[in-house]
């Protein structure tokens, strides 16, 4: 396990602690320590979606996937007031997390701050619109079809994506929100005879299950009562609905593109992410979060002013859709707080400094007979510290092992960070696959972390950026489709 630091956390609700002197490349390591020290759920606020994704990958590396639940609460990946909707897979991930989060005893949720500002459905919405099906349960297909359509599911000929269902004789196929695979429910008269997962690509059954949970297909209700509430509340904010396609679509039970930015109209009262969090939740965020929130609010207000000019698509005011600055920080301040910052501040009550150093220049020089001599010399001069080298793939790990085999260093390939930290021989150079960009040194924990970028420079950093850019483009393309 990670060697826990002596830096304390807030112990009383409303208290705040600050950890300072933490370089960006060591931030997720420090957050992992905080998660291990806190006996409850942790929420980590990221400044944007890219930082949230990076922290998600790095925390999975440092904590291990089996230790505590680590979840990324995804953003809609739309800009405020966009006239198109998030991809169904994104909605599925959000609904799954919201349905499980209130009962978490320990775990970490990583959320971009713009996502945390959004108002959400009331906490009882998902529970009231969810359904658990078990073998031998009674199920009447006509009623079930009507219930699914009221919950926002779309009837199709062949189920392929989240939020779809199909009825063929006595068989119901459904791809519930929050599920990784679709389900095939076979009936004998009005009784559930079997429940199986199936592959949406070839439609073949995979595994048998005893029960499944069906979450609502949307973050808002499109049943009769939900539509009625929408129409009544519409007239609270707008003088007319003539020539307004969104109003007409909802009246017909149609989920119009961009309807998510009218979510507050479906409920008499909305909630926020904070309402879904268990008690004793620790809030972790970077010190510059107030400036980030202020900047986001300026963007939101600018987009509202820019787009609220078409009477055929009137917009809700920003404060109806998003938490205002003071509302957000009031809710953050109601929990236990941990601020993390790279700045090295004077230690005093509630402020605790970390003793990080950055590795020296260890770049390989291929003009030399021994290209990695700087790395070799550095490792041999720090035998009192454990050195862990993180590379981006198993192939790169094997390449470095070959390069260093004849250097006189003792090389120990490991499968994970936790395995490296638990290794009996701490003085070996351990090599593992990990998502870290840059390394760090923490002398008081006898630890050196190095990465390929520390050894090979910008070439590796550019390669990693290209991979992340490609992933971002793929996500965006899927969201637009």
Describe this structure as you would to a colleague:
- The chain is α/β, with parallel strands linked by helices and 481 residues long.
- The chain is built from 17 helices and 21 strands.
- It has helices spanning 27-37, 49-63, 88-100, 113-117, 125-128, 141-150, 224-237, 245-251, 273-276, 289-307, 318-321, 325-333, 373-380, 394-404, 417-421, 452-456, 458-480; strands spanning 16-20, 41-46, 70-72, 107-112, 131-134, 154-155, 164-168, 171-175, 183-188, 191-198, 205-209, 211-214, 282-286, 336-340, 351-353, 356-357, 386-391, 411-413, 429-433, 440-442, 447-451.
- The strands form four sheets. A seven-stranded parallel sheet has the order 3-4-2-13-14-1-15. It has a six-stranded mixed sheet with strand order 6-7-8-9-10-11, with helices on one face.
- Helix 3 links the parallel strand 3 and strand 4 (107-112).
- Helix 1 (27-37) packs across helix 2 (49-63).
- It is globular, with a radius of gyration of 26 Å.
Care to give the gist of this entry?
The chain contains 17 helices and 21 strands.
Number of strands: 21
C-alpha end-to-end distance: 43 Å
**pLDDT average, as an integer?**
88
The amount of helix comes to 25-40%
Q: Helical stretch count? A: 17
Main β sheet profile: 7 strands, parallel
Taking all Cα atoms into account, the compactness measure Rg is 26 Å
Overall geometry: globular
Furnish the topology, listing elements before pairings.
Elements: E1 16-20, H1 27-37, E2 41-46, H2 49-63, E3 70-72, H3 88-100, E4 107-112, H4 113-117, H5 125-128, E5 131-134, H6 141-150, E6 154-155, E7 164-168, E8 171-175, E9 183-188, E10 191-198, E11 205-209, E12 211-214, H7 224-237, H8 245-251, H9 273-276, E13 282-286, H10 289-307, H11 318-321, H12 325-333, E14 336-340, E15 351-353, E16 356-357, H13 373-380, E17 386-391, H14 394-404, E18 411-413, H15 417-421, E19 429-433, E20 440-442, E21 447-451, H16 452-456, H17 458-480
Parallel strand pairs: 1-14, 1-15, 2-4, 2-13, 3-4, 6-7, 13-14, 17-19, 17-21, 18-19
Antiparallel strand pairs: 5-12, 7-8, 8-9, 9-10, 10-11, 16-20, 20-21
Helix pairs in contact: 1-2
């Amino acid at each position: 396990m990670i060697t826990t630091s002596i830096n304390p956390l807030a112990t009383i609700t409303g208290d705040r602690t600050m950890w300072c002197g933490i370089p960006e490349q060591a931030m997720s390591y420090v957050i992992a320590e905080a998660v291990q020290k806190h006996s409850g759920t942790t929420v980590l606020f990221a400044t944007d979606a890219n930082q949230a994704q990076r922290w998600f990958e790095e925390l999975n590396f440092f904590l291990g996937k089996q230790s505590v639940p680590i979840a990324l609460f995804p953003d809609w990946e739309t800009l405020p007031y966009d006239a198109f909707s998030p991809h169904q897979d994104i909605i599925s991930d959000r609904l799954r997390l919201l349905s499980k989060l209130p009962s978490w005893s320990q775990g970490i949720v990583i959320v971009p701050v713009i996502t945390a500002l959004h108002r959400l459905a009331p906490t009882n919405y998902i529970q009231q619109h969810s359904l658990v099906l078990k073998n031998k349960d009674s199920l009447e297909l006509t009623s079930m079809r009507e219930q699914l359509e009221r919950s926002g599911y779309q009837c199709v000929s062949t189920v392929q994506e989240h939020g779809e269902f199909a009825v063929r004789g006595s068989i119901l196929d459904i791809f519930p929100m929050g599920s990784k695979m679709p389900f095939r429910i076979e009936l004998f008269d009005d009784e559930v005879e079997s429940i199986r997962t199936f592959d949406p690509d070839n439609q073949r059954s995979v595994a048998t299950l005893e029960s499944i949970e069906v979450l609502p297909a949307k973050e808002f209700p499109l049943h009769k009562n939900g539509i009625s509430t929408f129409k009544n509340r519409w007239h609270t904010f707008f003088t007319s609905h003539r020539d307004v396609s969104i109003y007409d679509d909802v009246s017909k039970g149609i989920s119009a593109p961009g309807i998510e930015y009218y979510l507050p109209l479906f409920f008499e009262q909305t909630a926020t992410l904070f309402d879904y969090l268990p008690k004793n939740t620790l809030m972790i965020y970077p010190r510059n979060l107030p400036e980030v929130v202020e900047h986001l609010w300026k963007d939101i207000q600018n987009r509202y002013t820019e787009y609220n000019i078409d009477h055929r698509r009137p917009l809700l005011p920003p404060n109806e859709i998003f938490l205002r600055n003071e509302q957000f920080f009031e809710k953050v301040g109601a929990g236990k707080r941990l601020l993390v910052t790279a700045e090295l501040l004077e230690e005093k009550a509630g402020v605790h400094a970390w003793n990080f150093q950055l590795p020296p220049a260890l770049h390989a020089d291929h003009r030399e007979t021994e290209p990695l001599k700087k790395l070799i010399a550095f490792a041999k001069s720090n035998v009192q510290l454990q050195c862990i080298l993180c590379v981006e793939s198993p192939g790169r790990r094997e390449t470095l092992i070959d390069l260093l085999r004849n250097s006189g260093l003792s090389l120990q390939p490991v499968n994970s960070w936790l395995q490296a930290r638990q290794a009996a021989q701490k003085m070996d150079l351990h090599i593992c696959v990990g998502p870290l960009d840059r390394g760090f040194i923490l002398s008081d924990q006898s630890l050196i972390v190095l990465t390929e970028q520390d050894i090979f420079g910008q070439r590796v950093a550019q390669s990693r950026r290209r991979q992340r850019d490609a992933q971002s483009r793929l996500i965006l393309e899927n969201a637009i489709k």
